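Weekly puzzle thread! Below is a chain. First person to post its structure in token form gets bragging rights.
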Amino acid sequence: MSDVEPPRELEPRTNWGRRAMWAGGLLVVFLAVALIASATVPRWWAHRVGDQVDGSLTQGSLVGLFYGFVFTLVPIAVIVLILRWRRTWKTIVVAVLLAVVFALPNLMTLSIVIGRGDAAHAGERTLDVDAPGFRGGSLAGAILAALLIAFIAYLFMSRRRARSELQDAIAPSER
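Winning reply:
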């Protein structure tokens, strides 16, 4: 008899069947949650906004402007700051998930505006009566936030370009 044992595997084999079952199960759960959310979230969100605005056109416009601006600016800032800090696939996933969470008010309003289901139509009617001006204010706020971000990006790029031009102008005189 030989005292030599066969080599052992250092790492266990990946069980692809188990992974496929988990992925399929998560997909089914995700689809069920999405179906339930599409039937309830637009109505719920429209009533929450309607409770805040209480039928005032001015208040609806201002609340919409606030929501549109803040919940567009914050998600983009989160993505930019996290990706400037570290760029691994894990941080990218975390940045996108955080941005989606921070953008939820705008996404819920968008689900009312572009939704085709009964809940979206009910949400539209609720916003028309209880929160006039909210959808337009929300769009204006999102546009203002996007313009502010574009302006800040332009300032950073022009500053970088000016420094580069300054270095190019100084470099030949130092030679």
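Puzzle host: Confirmed. Bonus trivia for everyone else. Residues 115 and 121 are 7 Å apart (CA to CA).
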